[in-house]
Amino acid sequence: MKTQETERKREKRIAAIIIILLSLITIASLLVTVWSLWLRPDNPPLIPDYALPEEDKNAVDVIGGNDQKLEYSQGGGAVGFEYSEAAYINLQTGKIDMFFKNPHRSSGDIVLQIVIQDTVIAQSGRLVPGKQISVMELLKGKAEILAPGGYNAKFVAIMYNSETGERAMIESELSLLVTVTNN
Prior knowledge:
The protein is of the alpha+beta class and 183 residues long. 21% of the residues lie in helices and 38% in strands. It has one helix at residues 2-39; strands at 60-61, 82-83, 86-90, 95-102, 108-116, 119-127, 131-137, 149-161, 167-181. Strands 1, 2, 3, 4, 5, 6, 7, 8 and 9 form a nine-stranded mixed sheet that branches. The protein starts with a helix and ends with a strand. The relative contact order is 0.18. The model has no long low-confidence stretch (mean pLDDT 83).
């Protein structure tokens, strides 16, 4: 009799342990689901395979400089650019003061992104050769994730074929120091 009682207690204990383990696994699964659906940070915008047809609204003509195109082999391209290593963000206006030039001598268009801690905070329109920009705007919702201070960031220059609009297989990442202020 004692052995049957002992055996029943053992079976009840094992059943209770299994129920507790299954409950913990269920709770963990629910937590992961909630995180992945509602709490995960926004993904950066996808980079299109073809450049947008419109040029950046803040782009202005480059004045002066060398108009001779860079040399490149057939089926390839050559892009040269000039940029500032510092940018300044005003959280009140959502404007970014910076500088980036796609000189006349480049053979391709550029779409420029500013990235802080793996988050794209700004993206330009198309910069054709001979255009430059000195102002960009924060993407929607990005002012809320920034606090005043200094950030190590980067420009990401995404190259596109000027004739076909097709994205090139190369992009450049350029170091950038970003200062964020409330005014």
